[in-house]
Amino acid sequence: MAEAEIGVIGGSGFYSFLDDVTEVTVDTPYGRPSDSLFLGKIAGRKVAFLPRHGRGHHLPPHRINYRANMWALRSLGVRQVLGPCAVGGLRPEYGPGTLLVPDQLVDRTKARTQTYFDGETLPDGSTPNVVHLTFADPYCPTGREAALAAARGRDWEPVDGGTLVVIEGPRFSTRAESRWHAAQGWSVVGMTGHPEAVLARELSLCYTSLTLVTDLDAGTETGHGVSHEEVFRVFAQNVDRLRDVLFDAVAALPDNAARNCLCTDAHAGWDLGIELP
Ligand SMILES: [Zn+2]
């Protein structure tokens, strides 16, 4: 019996008032995830919450063990993941408080392991083969629809689609970088939405990103540039309604056995060389 069916990558602001939350520690062939996982129930669905940055937010984006995080979720039975994250808006109309559900991704990270299939032998002696998965559409269409409908149901009109560019961080963009991102037509910029997305695809997990704009990015705003305090303040102001949207989206997701999206056949034709958990 799976311990969880749906994963939410987010901290205590999302699970702290659920009844009967169970904390479990999970180890993986890739090391420890960011923190314990917290198991709770939403509308009868078994959900595993994982604080992406660890309790107390001690892990910067480039130090997060993304492979361990996604593997740990799958090992508990999770097959669908909702990944909320804070982002900067790259267009003036995407101001603080905007909820954007991206449909595309640009990876501008520099030093993060992006794959499970790198020839590294696992502790059980198995070695993954080289595989090249299709990633044209990085997000789960079913999960996106559930997120969009949940936001609308809470009178929070979301932006349907757009491109999330993920930078290495932990610094924010320069004005020149930010203007360049905007000039490409990209929508929002963040530091954590990748490689979560591709690792989810490699594990045949459905992955949906929900981006909350906490600030206008440096090339779009006219003030002093993005500050850490501003990001945390706006996130805190929106955490309650973001939690409501996440919970409604969880309730609307299909049973794992009923998934019929592109995420489920990502491995078609490939011999992985390893057993997924
Ligand atoms: Zn899917």
String of helices and strands? EHEEEHEEEHEEHEHEH
Distance between the termini: 14 Å
Calculate the mean pLDDT score and round it: 93
- Structural class from helices and strands? alpha/beta
Biggest beta sheet summary: 11 strands, mixed
The CATH topology of the domain at 83-265 turns out to be Rossmann fold
CATH-defined superfamily of the domain at 83-265: Nucleoside phosphorylase domain
Q: In the CATH hierarchy, what is the architecture of the domain at 83-265 at level 2? A: 3-Layer(aba) Sandwich
* Count of runs of 4 or more consecutive helical residues: 6
Radius of gyration: 18 Å
Proportion of residues in extended strands = 15-25%
Residue share in helix: 10-25%
CATH class bucket of the domain at 83-265: Alpha Beta
Describe what this molecule looks like in 3D.
It is a single chain. The protein is α/β, with parallel strands linked by helices and 277 residues long. It has a domain of 183 residues: Nucleoside phosphorylase domain (Rossmann fold, 3-Layer(aba) Sandwich), CATH 3.40.50.1580. It contains 6 helices and 11 strands. Strands 1, 2, 3, 4, 5, 6, 7, 8, 9, 10 and 11 form an 11-stranded mixed β-sheet that branches. A hairpin with a 2-residue loop joins strand 3 and strand 4. The chain is globular. The two termini are 14 Å apart. The mean pLDDT is 93. It binds zinc ion. Zinc ion binds next to helix 3.
In short:
With 277 residues, the chain is α/β, with parallel strands linked by helices. The protein is 25% helix and 21% strand. α3 packs across α6.
